[in-house]
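Course assignment 3, question 2. Fill in each field.
Student: A.L.
Task: Predict the tertiary structure for the chain below.
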Amino acid sequence: MPDSLFIIVVLVLIAFTVLVSLLSRYKKCSSDKILVVYGRVKPNKDGTSRSSKCIHGGATFIWPVFQAYQFLDLTPMSIFVDLRNALSRQNIRIDVPSTFTVGISTEPGIMQNAAERMLGLKLSQIQELAKDIIFGQLRLIIATMDIEEINTDRDKFQEAISRNVETELKKIGLRLINVNVTDISDESGYIVSLGKEAAAKAVNDAKKSVAEKSRDGSIGQANAEMEQRIEVSKANSNAIRGENEAQIAIAMSNAALREKEAEALKLATAAEKIQAAKALEESYAAEQSAEAARFAREKATLEADVIVQAEIKKRQLELQAEAEAEQIRRRAKGDADAIFAKMEAEARGIEEILRKQAAGFSEIVKSAGGDPKDALMLMIGDKLEDLMRVQVDAIKNIKIDKITVWDGGSGSEGGSSTSNFISNLMKSVPPLGEVFSLAGMQLPEILGKKLEENKIIEAEDPTPAA
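Answer field:
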């Protein structure tokens, strides 16, 4: 009996152990995970074999030895994709930084792909794998779209991303939860130019509306003035009527001018659109060869830089020339003002000197008792010493290096040739009396009598002066 009891206890213990062990192999799967059972699994209902069995939100029994299991985490993963220099369909490189939120899909077929391709990978490895796929698909999508579509129709752009990226992500068992394109920019400034073009169009439309309203107001005002002038002309005259009609014609001409200006603005806007369309058409034609288009674009960019630099240099030269011309004009004006001021100052000085001289002459005349001749005599007497000095200085500085005289003994009137040479040299200076005579004046009597006495003495004394 004890042996039988012992056997029963052992059997019970074995059975309990086996039961506990079997119960421990029954695994439940939470809602945020996928239970992947691999090893010996049942084939699909259509008879095809499968490498694993995926369970989401349930439980299953894991056979010891024959089966094993792992969990896949369904927590969403945020992947930042900083895409740079992606080539668009217009061969313009753009930057599209964006954030993608992905997670392991719970659809049966896609969940099977996740179990086959990502089981055992770490979260960072899954993110890198998804990032590589997203990079490639983003470049592919951008290469098939224009910048205008990418920039203006964001819904279409995100729809294309969702469609292409999710298709590729499903191949490895992932699903795309959200796409957030933070910003779109290009290295050539084309998107900025599109914004400026839209702003310019809005401004032009506003200007056109203002011009049309102004035109309507001018036409209405002209019509009112026309009616007023017509009524007034009926009461006045035909001349006033003609003036009114002329004014009406001017008003209508101004209105026509404004209308033509509005049409010209419209044609200019249309021409810009046509040119833009032609540029797009040329860009579409350039897409036949990506490398050739890239080479042409880089060449055009280089030429544009050269042209811009040339234009800047040209403008700088023009501004420098204008500045130099302005400096020359200002300098010439300053010189002219200085010359004018100098001449004006000299004229004022001469005028002041003449006024002082006139005042001095007036005082001399008053001192001479009001007789101008006596005043003149006083002035000559005052300057007599200077006049005599001028006569003496006339021959004072004559330098005679050498004189050769062939003297025969005596000259005419008993004088020698040498004495006659000196005497004749002195006679070449105009006598003081002749100078006064040429001026219409006579020497004072005292000087005149002295000269007469000298002449009488000379006549009485025949001996020549030594």
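Instructor remarks: The radius of gyration is 61 Å. The beta strands are 26-28, 33-39, 52-55, 59-61, 67-73, 77-87, 93-104, 174-181, 185-186.
Grade: pending
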